Amino acid sequence: MSVLSLLRPDRFTLALVATAIAATILPATGVGAPVLKVVIAGSIALLFFLQGARLSREAIIQGAVHWRLHLMVFAATFLLFPVLGLLTKTYLQSYLAPGIALGVLYLCLLPSTIQSSITFTSIAGGNVAAAVCSASASNVIGVFLTPLLMGFLTQTQGGVSLNAIGEVVMQLLVPFLIGHLMRPWIGRWVESQRALTSIVDRGAILLVVYYAFGEAAIADLWHQLAPSDLIVLVVLNCVLLALVLIITTGASRLLGFSKQDEIALVFCGSKKSLGSGVPIASILFPASMIGAVILPLMLFHQIQLLVCAVLARSYAERR
């Protein structure tokens, strides 16, 4: 695989960009806006219902024995990243456009991805069972922990309310648990309908992105952003990812992890979930803020895919 092919954006990234542009030019207004909000709420509930139905209990049990590895992934996701995000917001917010610093902090509080963490761990020859367990647990815990951390760290600035946290639980966690409880009856069918579930997953995210960037256009976000703001944000995302990759790699070797466990830690501990982050943001933040808040996450999503694709290939070649 050539370097050029690795750097080429995937179709979903192109769809995200196209959706953001379309929303900026033609945002949802008038009667269409509340209808779109109802559709988004339903699509997000369906997304997490299907995620719950796909989650294999056997894979969780198989990977759960690696408690030291899971503890390190948890520490990287919900301790290391939040510390870096808080430092960024505290010391660099004067260099960032309004709302972007909050978006960087929000990015750092999100759970790990599931699909890409497992995929890159598999490509690199790592402990796939442990990656499934860590990434899945991170997503479930993140539904609770991300809103709580966001509320705690922004409480002095009118941060996330308890009502918003309750909404996250009702719209995300409850459908997820119902889907998982129904797995014995519908799990096999859901797993066989990968095209359909992919449309639901990506469609829900695109709907939220359309709504968020439409509201951002109405709130005149793009006139507040200079090209230098985007450059600073890209560089900042690259630095955040590099720091976490270096720290997780060093920690795994210092603690004597096997190479397979190191790979799982590096890929699960360095990811941030667009699939969870966009729906949670749509519930936690006012509509006028969502575009600015998820912009750092959208950029980080593409950067982490590019960097981790190269890193996974490097691990595989050394193996």
SSE topology sketch:
Blueprint: H1 3-7, H2 11-25, H3 32-54, H4 57-63, H5 67-92, H6 100-108, H7 115-124, H8 128-153, H9 162-181, H10 183-192, H11 194-218, H12 221-224, H13 227-254, H14 259-269, H15 274-284, H16 287-318
Helix pairs in contact: 2-11, 3-9, 3-10, 3-11, 4-8, 5-6, 5-8, 5-13, 5-14, 6-16, 7-8, 7-14, 7-16, 8-9, 8-14, 9-15, 11-15, 11-16, 13-14, 13-16, 15-16
| Proportion of residues in β-strands | under 5%
Q: Give a count of the beta strands, DSSP E runs of length 2 or more.
A: 0
Largest sheet descriptor: none
**Helical content (DSSP H or I, runs of 4+):** over 70%
Alpha carbon gap, first and last residue: 17 Å
CATH level-two architecture? Up-down Bundle
CATH class: Mainly Alpha
Give the helix tally: 16
User: How many distinct domains?
Assistant: 1
Poorly predicted residue ranges: none
